[in-house]
Amino acid sequence: MKRRDFLKAIGAAALLPACGMASRLFSAERRRPNFVFFLVDDLGRQDLGCYGSTFYETPNIDRLAAQGMRFTNAYAACPVCSPTRASIMTGKYPARIRLTNYIAGARPGKLLSAEYFHYMKLEEVTLAEALKEAGYKTYFVGKWHLGNEPYYPEKQGFDVNIAGDSAGSPPTYFYPYQRGKRSIPGLEQGKPGEYLTDRLADESLKLIERSKGEPFLLYLSFYAVHIPLEAKKELAEKYKTKAQRLGLDDDPHFLTNEDWPKTAAGDQKWRATLKTRILQDHAVYSAMMESLDDSVGRVMKKLEELGIADNTIVIFMSDNGGLATAEGQPTCNLPLRAGKGWLYEGGIREPMLIKWPGVVQPGTTCDEPVTSTDFYPTMLEMAGLPLKLDQHVDGESMVPLLKGTGRQQRKAIYWHYPHYSNQGGKPGGAVRVGDFKLIESYEDNRIELYNLRDDLGEQHDLAAQMPDRAAELRLMLHEWRKEVGAVMPEPNPNWKG
User: Fold this and answer.
1) Which of 6, 24, 136, 322 is 20 to 30 Å from 108 by CA-CA measure?
2) What Cα–Cα distance (Å) separates residue 25 from each residue in 13, 132, 381?
């Protein structure tokens, strides 16, 4: 038991009559809403029909968008997975909690990557713990990737943990979900040929059914569409045929870039694998997308069948940009530049949907920049719970945006990624203020400035044309790094260029 849990238990025992009365008063006014949070792994912003994809088929997710609000400027707190996941759970920027890279990180280059925690500290009061304190049943299903066993979901506020451990990807998407000694906990029993995305949906449906009228948080964190690229054979064949029928096989698929950053001296073999996909037609990835969409649809259907859809808030988000520049390059993020592992928009701008029955007008769009730290205060306010201002210090409630009654008050959104990514990205930081975004390279202090309103693809660097604006944003970024205690990378003494 965390020390704070012990102290809270003592306090709760002393206040049982008052707490019980408060609970009854709340119930008399309205039931607390349930939450279903879909977090998808490596899903690009352009991978959904509701965001412009014309090849992948996502009717259930598109229907969710039509039932709620679609965000056009939603950001992950980091271009790789673990830090973004921690930002959702804590309401804090990855730099503040010193969890700035995926666990366990990539190779060094000209710089040695900044040191960081390989777990989410138990001292953090997670979103799950905050909801559990208020009487919610808390269910985690899928990918965790926030530390080894002492830091698993059940130690961070979840009543149930199915399939969540330290792994960043599944050993395989097919039962028995095992490769060598690696397997997925909680899924030991299954059927030959069973597909992981389907199985996670199966487990989620069981948890929804057992909630028995109590408010619940179902945090369904899909392993899809992360590598390994594995799909049901019949679905992959469907999309292979579709691409051929559309004549896409004859179209150019990739752009190469001679300026990719090196990560080790003479590492030309690795650099040769870096190229950017410019076409969505990967058959296996498309099939994985269909399985993902089908699982989302099954969960949504179960809410309807149980008569709880009108009292369930549904959130849909990705942890970082689509995999477009390495590791198979299965998807295309255009018009966004680059993808997972990069501080360009393709690595951090995400698809985000929120359905809040009776509050959010169906089919609406929000253009306000928001980020993954905002979920924590937003969900507390949605549930009618007091905010934890000392915890979610980097989050700002999106409720005014969802209700259409106001805007957020923050001036800027920040990123700090002091690492080399497996996808070609290099150490740097970024800040967005209004329409302008500045990126700073930690290798050579070079800066880039873009007007995202006019240049979504970040093709026209304005740093030389607008030196005053660039200097202003750079100063903001530097001051923010000091404020959060961001750890910087150090020169690599073994670097040979």
Assistant:
1) 322
2) 19, 18, 17
Q: What does each C-alpha distance from 47 to 243, 288, 384, 394, 424 come to in angstroms? A: 16, 11, 34, 28, 21
| Catalytic annotation, pick one of 50, 145, 226, 366 | 145
- CA 65, 341, 153 angle in degrees (round to 5)? 65
As a whole-number percent, the residues of the chain with pLDDT over 70 amount to 90
User: Which is the catalytic residue, given 19, 50, 78, 81?
Assistant: 81
- The per-residue pLDDT of the chain, averaged, comes to 92
Write down the domain spans for the chain.
32-410
**Close Cβ partners of 189 (under 8 Å, ≥ 6 residues apart):** none
Cβ count near 450 (within 10 Å): 25
User: What pLDDT score was predicted for residue 26?
Assistant: 38
pLDDT at 6 over 60: no
For residue 247, name the pLDDT band (cuts at 50, 70, 90). very high
Name which of 72, 102, 91 is nearest 349 in CA terms: 72
Q: What superfamily in CATH does domain 32-410 come from?
A: Alkaline Phosphatase, subunit A (3.40.720.10)
Q: How far is CA 275 from CA 253, 329, 348, 425, in A?
A: 10, 8, 18, 12
Where b means 16+ CB within 10 Å and e means fewer, 73-103 reads bbbbbbbbbbbbbbbbbbbbbbbbbbbbbbb
460 is catalytic: no
